[in-house]
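WARN no homologs supplied; continuing
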Amino acid sequence: MIKAVLFDADGTLMDSIASWRKALKTVLGRRGFPYSEEDFQVLIPLTTKEGGAYLKEKYGFAETGDEIAAEYLGLVEGFYATEVELKKGVREALEYYAGRDIPMAIVTSSERILIEAACKRHGISQYFQGLYICSELGTSKRNPDIFVNTAKVLGAEPEETLVYEDSDYAIETAVKAGFKVIKVIDELNIVEVETEI
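OK structure emitted
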């Protein structure tokens, strides 16, 4: 029986990946470099601060890693507040769980300001009992603690908790820790999948 649900944000609740790509293209383009999908794939699991340090080291930008991270974050924040849409089926899934009094939380590697902006824009903040940010907790989704501890806050053990994720590394972490996991892809209709469980 499912007693709690944990949602990733980017690529799971929100169709936001294009915004991150656009921001990277802008950051690199302002400095005369072409967009690099290889860099984007490296940046996906990193915090914004780690991403800024990575770009600084790789390209030797004059700015500090923190300054690059702030620029990158500022661009993305604008996209979250004005452009980022919910993925197909998200609102229905949230209503499904809320209607069954199953507590939900967001567990993300993104920055709080981004997720709060998107949730506010789409009016879904009230569905979540918490927003757990890897960088604020000094961890990553390579460590199962963020999933385990969040589930406990919601009153559930790993085997009683469903995790929605799109990143393979985070899925692997959650599965190894005993969670039930649904891998989210662009074509996935969350409601159709969940009602079969």
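The domain at 4-15+85-194 is CATH 3.40.50.1000 (Rossmann fold).
OK
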